Amino acid sequence: MPRLIVKIPYTKGRARKTSAHLKNYVRYMATREGAEKPLSPNFQQKENYTQYIASRPRAERVSDHALFSGADEPVVLSQVVKEVANHPGNVWKPIISLRREDAERLGYDNAQTWKNLLTSFSVEMAQAMKIPLEQFRWYAAFHDEGHHPHVHMVCYSADGKSGFLTKEGLAKIKSGLAKEIFRQELTEIYSRQTQRRDSLTTETKNVLEKLVQRIQDGDPESERAGQLLLQLAEKLKTVGGKKQYGYLKAPLKDLVDEVVEELAKDPLVAKSYDLWYELREDVLRTYKDAMPKRIPLSQQKEFKQVKNLVVREAVRLGECLSLFSPQDVPQENVIDDEPQTDDFDTPGNKVDWSDRYKMAREFLYGNDTNPPDFEKAFDLFLAEAEKGNALAMYDLGRMFADGLGREMDMEQAQGWYKKALDTFLVVDSTPYVEYRIGKMHAAGLGTEQDYSQAASWFDEAAEQGNKFAMYSLAGLYLRGQGVEKDEVKAKELYRKSAAKGVPYAAYELAKLYRDGIGGETDARIAEEYFSQAFLGFRSMEQESHDDKLQYRIGWMLLRGVGTEKDEVAARVWLEKASRLGNPCAQYQLAKIILADPDSSPEQVDNAIEWLTRAAEGGNEFAQYALGKLLLEKGEEETGIRWLTMAAEQENPFAQYALGKLLLEKGDKENGVRWLTASAEQGNIYAQYYLLHLDDFRDQLVRQGVVRLFHHLGNLFLEQLPPAGQGVKMGTDHKLRRKLREKKAAQGHKRDDHEPVMTS
Predict the structure, then answer these.
(1) What is the pLDDT of residue 222?
(2) Which long-range contacts (CB under 8 A, 24 or more apart) does 472-477 make?
(3) What gap in Å lies between CA 661 and CA 640, rounded to an integer?
(4) Does some domain include residue 752?
(5) 3-state secondary structure of 261
(6) Domain's final residue, options 181, 212, 228
């Protein structure tokens, strides 16, 4: 097992004799020559440290000394020595060491590799040391020591005030460095353990099936767990506010912990927990000498979900609701991501990016200084449409469809879309025009939805090099719409489109590499394409303030995909897209606000308004969520109406919820009809409900315990982190794919990252 040693002593600010120690320590880092010698007693004082690390033997010189930082400019040693020596605050002195064989094998036997690592890791290091990034300062020198090549560092806050390194912060630095340095080594370890994980998965599944059967047969092993669950259900009936483990008072938390510990007593569950711990400890050994003491399942923070599962089961039990209902966590609706561009050359006045058309688009989307003005945009689009400009006709259709500056009117929208399509069909044919025609057939705008027609038009445009047609055609091949499904061909088309600068294609390509579709899984390449996509979206949005681009940027910031996670910035972008009528952004923004316990009543009202607008825009998940919300508020008639609209769009969550509700109201015929529709889409909860209509309520307690064991077992399996991603352990890509499909069938989520793009 490779090993990393990290020590981070520090010199306290304003202590006696610290200035000279730090001055010479920096010099030592940068300029040492010859064999390493023991330090004199005076070296323990601040007088010597900067000098020491600058001048130590076998320090690799970058100029006349070995000192470097994250900046491109050479470090002026005298300035650093003075700066560090006179620093009023604490100065940390990390030492990061590898074994010789590890350093040579992984390439960490030179100053440049260490500089690259420390530069990329500086953000995490500043966070762990609780120093604002703009105040964080660091310098380092590589010492090519015989048995343990290492780097010396000095780190501090420029303001001399901030900075505090806790045990937790030190652990984050160690684990983060191990993740970066041993990434390749750990990937190899994951590969060797794949067979073991596969056998463990199979064994655990068999064990859980037998356990469920014993409980259903009334085995007394489950009696204690059932009694505790009933007690918890009764007590939660009188509890107000948010019913999650973290919000409960201490006595109720203790009761939840008892339930968890009762589950953990089962020998097979205990075995699963032990196996999970073994995998975790394999990783910890890369940077820890001694393993921390194992803690009980009820105290393990990594499995906090278990406690919330117990709470949710108890709440459902108390309310006599179905214990087999899906988690209400639907993802965004399918969207039409049409790249907006003017990089084509079409003569004539039928498809024309005229000055007036460009001005209309600027009013529609707004700019950096002015908000959108839908009225002016509409007037200019109308003037262009009257001149026969198909592009303006299309945008008028979009304004009516999304309710931008006027009442939403799908009949008017389709009328303008049809005029646009008819015009596209009679103008001089170009790859761009062919691409636009294909888009309208794919989305059913101004015509019946026809993927075969769309594929034909996309193919014509793609053969002539249109990068957006390549992207759209790839989506059809990926999903098998209008063409025979071909994941390999889809991947190649996405690659060609991405190479031509289409960020949508780069994003889809990243997902294929992430999930191992159309080839092998490659997390590194996936991340590169995600980053390319994010930068591409930002660049395109600067040229065209398009709501689809704004939604994408917000979504990626919210989840930290291709960029650093930033919820504040994400909300800004989602709000921009929402104001432009993007239903996915409206739905996502509403989810964020409603999930935030600190949201004000006014913000909640705004969220409901966004959710309503998204639902009116046809977003099936918004319709479902709005229906559930209204039902909770007692507005049954309106709630059922929205659930019905979502169910009619074949949303399995809405179908399931509506079916249960209608059964409870005595409408067995329609209730069974919607449950059947949900079950046919793979919802195992609907399937179970249909099989147990008659005896369902008589088995609430028993089934509650069954479901807890079921979720617990799955949780152990899914807590194994994905293979090839940092230092985490996980299942191989094929198994992860199966697990995602299973989650979708259970109603947890339709897709783990992004709605499927229609073209």
Answers:
(1) 47
(2) 472/435, 472/438, 472/439, 472/442, 472/759, 474/505, 474/508, 475/508, 475/757, 475/758, 475/759, 476/442, 476/451, 476/759
(3) 9
(4) no
(5) helix
(6) 181
